Amino acid sequence: MGCGPSETVAATHPTVSPPIINGQSKQASDESLKNDLNQRRTSTTSHTSKKIRINSAASIHSTTKRVTSASSKTTTTDLKSSTVGKKSRTPSLALYDDANYDLVIIWVDPHIIDSEKTYVNSLTKFRRITDAVFTFNEFDQCIHFLDHIYEKTAFLIVSDSIVEQFLPLVIGKPHLDFIYILNQTKRKIELVNAWKKKVKGLFDDIEEIFKAITADSNHIDSWIPMSILPKNDIKKNENEANELNSSFMYMCLLTEILLKMQYDYKARNTLSEFCRGRYLDNEEELNLINEFEQNHKSQSAVYWYTRDCFLYKTMNFALRTQDMEIIMKMGFFIRDLHEQLATMYKNQVDQQKVLVFRGQGILLNEFDKIRKNIGGLMSFNVFLSTSTDIEISLNFAKGAENDPKLVPVLFRMHIDPTKSSVPFADVTKWSSFSYEKETLFSMHTIFRIMDVRRNEGQYWNIILSLTSDTDPELMKLTDHLRQEIGGGSHLQQLGNLMLKMGKFDRAKDMFSTERNITNEGTWFEQIRFNHQLGYIFRENGEFVKALSYYEKALDIQKANLPKNHPSLAPIYNNIASVCYSIGDFSRALSFYKTALDIELKSLPSDHRNLSNTYNNLGSVHCSIGDYSIALQFFTKTLGIRQKTLPDNHPDMASIYNNIGSVYNSLGEYTKALAHYQKAIDIQEKTLLSTHIDLSTSYSNIGITYNAMGDHEKALESHKKALEIRTKSLLSHHPDIALSYNNIGSVEIDMGHYTTALWYLEKALEVRDNCDAGYHVGFANVYDNIGRVYQSMDDKLKAQSNFQTALEIRKHSLDENHPDIANSYNNLGAIYNLMEEKQKAIEYCEKALVIQKQSLSENHPSLANTYNNIGSTYSLMENCAQAISFFERALTIQQKASEPNQKDLVNTYNIIGRMYNEMNDYEKAISFYERSITICEDHFANDEQLLATTYHN
């Protein structure tokens, strides 16, 4: 029967204590641990030809999150050839994915010459529109790039010499809406009908294209971020409005901090210098920047914001893309503008109810959400410009009529000044465009959606009413997160908020800035700073650096606090999390127990820190196969969090994920999925769409679906996880390898062996460059590579990889861990194929002994082992003995809450074959018929499986 997928249970991860709240940090260990970590890293490079799956690193913030996934599938094979062996003049995808640009300009021309003055000047001009400008001279590079830009709008320039060959390859790309043909030869080009919606014209020179892109990109610049807060009684589709809710919450918290901060003239200089870098060759804007730097006063904020210049464009871009670097640079101006509006609002409070308008194009998906949420709440997460003149607003709406991505709308906003908690004012007297009769609202003004109606023309009316209402559930979570962000300086608060949002680089910037201001500070401040950086480096997968900073924090605490002071527990917890992340479970367990001993003596039984330590202990026990103990710890964690946290707090999602991982390990897939779904439901409402914890949930769900035989759903989930991880993590982070392995595993199950091997090799490349290279999770990669070679009938390579997986597991796991049994089972299967029957039975029986001790009697892994032993006896022509093992496997498969139908087909078929060889044709036909029934019900399109079954 062969060996099954190398699936390790969805991994639970320790929760790392937040770095600065309540002065608590996490743990650091002794020098031997750092040496051991470095040795582990270097030892991994000796296994460059093999692959492993990893337990992803422990998550921060008191929840265990990630999963060590076992198998995954991917179907995309074209990625492999796109850039191999080629040099691109463009920045790498990784560099681009780190940039918060929502539009990208792509220029494809096989005859581009980098040194040409015209070419250089053209790129400089295009960078006035966006810094994301890329050039390609080969088709496959460009196609690969287009396949890997997410949530962007692409503007494509194509040379006339390649139009007919190239456009058919890319015209259907979803993010490609604007195509410009550079026709310098002025030859006649026939446009296919399918191209006409996207091709904006034929242009004789690049200057004309620059003007066209500038005009078309203005529609994107006018997009503004909105949040939809649905009514509780409106049934939402999956993912609908959830990201908007979390964006609203985090941006409100960010704005609160920025408005409280104190700024000096240096802030204005810093912003001005930054903007000069964005408008290097634009003399008009550079002059305005100089004017702003020299003359801006807080009382002139409205005037500057309403000018059509760099300031308005830069702020809206930053808020639209949530570019934290720019938002923070503009913090002083956001404060000035808000305070000037607040002053005007106080002076205009006696005004009457008024009707204002705003015309614009909005994205199709946003428009659809608004239509489905009549009665719900809506917030604009920018300073909102409106007009009392409907004709002016209509002109803006009609400007979007020809853009296929946008729906032209006219917002009709009924304003009752008594119902707003956000300042707004008629700024006509202060505006640089007084004829627009502008009313300007500060950020996060909330409206109720009253109606959506189609106008007789080409636009839609959206009727809104100003309100002070909020979403109670969302506000409760916001209040809780506000407390978790804590007191301290405003820079500390900003850093903590960035950690909550998963923006680790920005958090590091905030903490480092504060460090520079305070210099060394007190010993407590030194602890906090080292703890903060340890936390950030750990999340980035840089475990050696994380350990170094945690140790510094621990040394300072030991020098200033008693041995068992409560503040030491978080440090020990965090050191343990590093041990866990590199697969040193025994040391992790030791440090977690030290932390628990301190907390039990000093904290109340329902303290949140205790819940974190229980959670972390559960993660270790789950990883070493002690599932019942793990579940006990997770249950304690859940009980405390249910008492102390809002139901929709992200840490609730983490514990649901971890409980799901235990059930997945126990083969109870329905229970596992139910818990994972609880986690996803919370995370999609409360986390940004690129937050790494979401990738953990998607990965776990993918593992479970794959174990249940639903490879398509597994592949979909694993692709979501990989997309988030490639956006949010460093390229050598272990979780990237985890996703590659999972996809490779699913590809194996789908029979796509070449594709699987490519993904598994990618996992090993990550392993060779990360700090957790000898983590036991990488054994899964080697197992999966062994499965590929086994399927390709290269038995020696398969045996070698299975043996490497066993050695890695023996290095980190107890000899009775279920994963050790998996390795024995895989080796037994390959020895069976190599016709070394005695070795095959010996290894499978070793697996069986461990599994009977550590797993439930109906665990799916036992069925795999029974099948492998039965296969060996079949080769030995001992059909009766073979049948006894196959029937034990069948009994387990039939008892599964969600039976894997393909496994049942295979087992029925092989038992039928055994009875056929024993000349018991009646029983043989009985089993074959059961196999045929399942095939016809579940695999009607699988011609090979049907043919095999009918042949039997």
Automatic annotation (TrEMBL):
TPR repeats lie at residues 527-560, 569-602, 611-644, 653-686, 695-728, 737-770, 779-812, 821-854, 863-896, 905-938. Its EC number is 2.4.2.31. Residues 1-50, 65-85 are annotated as: Disordered. SMART domains: TPR. One of its GO terms (molecular function) is NAD+-protein-arginine ADP-ribosyltransferase activity. It is an enzyme of class 2 (transferase). Residues 28-39 have a biased composition (Basic and acidic residues). Residues 65-83 have a biased composition (Low complexity). InterPro entries: ART (IPR000768), TPR-like_helical_dom_sf (IPR011990), TPR_rpt (IPR019734). Gene3D superfamilies: Tetratricopeptide repeat domain, Toxin ADP-ribosyltransferase, Chain A, domain 1. Keywords: Glycosyltransferase, NAD, NADP, Nucleotidyltransferase, Repeat, TPR repeat, Transferase. It catalyses: L-arginyl-[protein] + NAD(+) = N(omega)-(ADP-D-ribosyl)-L-arginyl-[protein] + nicotinamide + H(+). It holds the Pfam family TPR_12. Belongs to the Arg-specific ADP-ribosyltransferase family. This is NAD(P)(+)--arginine ADP-ribosyltransferase. It comes from Rotaria socialis.
